Amino acid sequence: MKNFLLTAASLALLSSPALAENIGVSMAAFDDNFLTVLRNGMGDHAKELGNVTLQVEDAQNDVGKQQNQVDNFIASGVDAIIVNPVDTDATAALSAAASAAGIPLVYVNRQPANIDSLPEKQAFVGSLEHDAGRMQGEEICKQLKAAGKTEAKAVILLGELSNQASRERTQGFKDVIAGDDCKFITVAEEQTANWQRTQATDLVTNWLSAGTGFDAIASNNDEMAIGAIQALKSASKDMASIVVGGVDATQDGLAALQAGDLDVTVFQDAKGQGAGALDTALKIAKGEKVESKVYIPFQLVTKDNLGDFTSKN
User: Fold this and answer.
1) What is the pLDDT of residue 313?
2) Mean pLDDT over all residues of the chain?
């Protein structure tokens, strides 16, 4: 009888759909267009798998709230946790809490500051942010050259200063214009608009009112680029005379590119990151080996290849 009971228990375990079914997800913010696509991509993938329940929480850009969410996930005994960090410099405490509880933790999209010292059962799924800034900078440089510019000024719209993606994208752009091919471009202004469209509109309006001249706008994301475009149009600026670049290739960004207002963006695979983070969390929870850094490549988007990306995000 004992042997039969052991065998039955073993069969029940083997026949279960997955060892990890309940995943806690803490998103930095729900009211961000790109992160909404990422979150929906994760949810769609969970439905495809058919055996995964996601408990998704909005940290509302509050570090303390995100820490509490992770603590609550741990207390409720989830099988794994996925975190889109509010502050990439404040991830060590999240990692320590999950590690102490023995619960797998996967960071998604925003690279944690402790990326090179993640504990066991932890990983990051995202993209190399420096590449986005580099691709954007190279295309802005190319378009300025095509317009006959031998001297040009650029302004940079920064995301949240606490965010690794903002710093890396900005540095990628600056590395391009520091090179011999594009050193004719100098930075006239750079300030944060915190990833937000309305803040970017206000910021660019202020620059224009102050008489700041520029030939290009390098925005850390599409939302701020669209805000900048709105400010330029309100000031009756000739859109053909200013090269505007974004990052993410959101639906709104692609629409602005198709309309001829945005000149370049860089596709970041939100759905791929979301699905990849979920797959990685499930693999770790099942005891499988995974890479601690999983990178999904960025892709340049211009009017020439716009059609390849209209259905991706």
Assistant:
1) 61
2) 92
Q: Are 26 and 81 in contact (CB under 8 A)?
A: yes
How high is the pLDDT of residue 11? 29
How far is it, in rounded angstroms, from Cα 167 to Cα 165?
Answer: 5
Q: What pLDDT shows up at residue 310?
A: 81
How many angstroms separate the CA atoms of 38 and 27, rounded? 10
C-alpha dist (Å) from residue 191 to 35, 44, 150, 196, 248:
22, 36, 25, 12, 19
In this structure, are residues 302 and 139 in contact, taking their beta carbons and an 8 Å threshold? yes
DSSP 106-163: EEESSPPTTGGGPPTTEEEEE--HHHHHHHHHHHHHHHHHHTT-SSEEEEEEE--TT-
Domains with residue ranges and CATH for the chain: 2-127+269-296 (3.40.50.2300), 129-267 (3.40.50.2300)
